[in-house]
Amino acid sequence: MDTSIRPLHIREWPTDERPRERLLAYGAKALSDAQLLAIFLGSGLRGRDAVTTARDLLHAHGPLRTLLEQPADALSKLPGLGPARACRLAAALELGHRFLGAELERGALLSDPHAAGRYFAQRLRGRPHEVFAVLFLDTRHRAIAFEELFQGTIDGAQVHPREVVRRALALNAAAAICGHNHPSGNPEPSGADRTITARLKESLALVDVRLLDHIVVGDGTPVSLAARGWV
I need a labelling partner for 121 at 20 to 30 A (CA). Which of 13, 128, 202, 226 fits? Predict the structure, then answer.
């Protein structure tokens, strides 16, 4: 075998190009998607390093969000992963979700639309069907509960304000933030979104519950209807 054309092992790369060393030196944000995935993989397929294997996975099954939204059983069938790595990856993703969600657990103060947008995106993004959820808050705008109240089709979900009011009363909520996803990926609020927002605001006001915002989740940054002056 001609070793002159042998691919270099990651250990043989310049220090600044090795994913682990770059992470330690510059932080995780300095790494590409492939480099981050390579650290998780640890090693690549036979004859290929972890970074190349990660790039191949992203090229064939990506981008990153598309790859990571696959269930564990589907991930386990991909080259370079397998059951053990698929399970570890699914567990790591869930840890990340729970970490992000912890900021809005009961007792956490909801201070701005961006925090709510991140939370709704973490809970609803990637769903194949539209899901309408409500985050119920106490008098100090601390989270009480997050509930997925209505599920629909790929292009809509029927929302019943009476049920939202019923849950608000049961939880003794003083305020609420509602949100839903657009499976199409376009987060732009529709006319129907603005109409149901107005109906919810009016219905909740009858029982002295304030609707603070309506978040629409798609690709990219979630859209806050309150930030646009529509709540």
Answer: 202
- Which pLDDT score, from 0 to 100, does residue 64 have? 84
At 46-71, the pLDDT tens digits run: 778 888 889 999 998 878 878 887 88
| Of residues 158, 157, 171, 156, the one with CA closest to residue 204 | 171
Separation of alpha carbons 104 and 177, rounded Å: 12
Contact 81/67 with Cβ under 8 angstroms? no
- Residue count of the chain: 231
The tokens describing 82, both together, are 């397998």
- Please give the Cα distance from 92 to 86 (Å, whole number): 10
Answer positive or negative: Cα dihedral of 36, 42, 48, 53.
Answer: negative
And the tokens for 104? Answer: 């809005």
Residue pair 130/153 in contact (Cβ under 8 Å)? The answer is: yes
In this prediction, residue 108 carries a pLDDT of 57
User: What is the signed CA dihedral for 162, 150, 146, 91, rounded to 10 degrees?
Assistant: 170
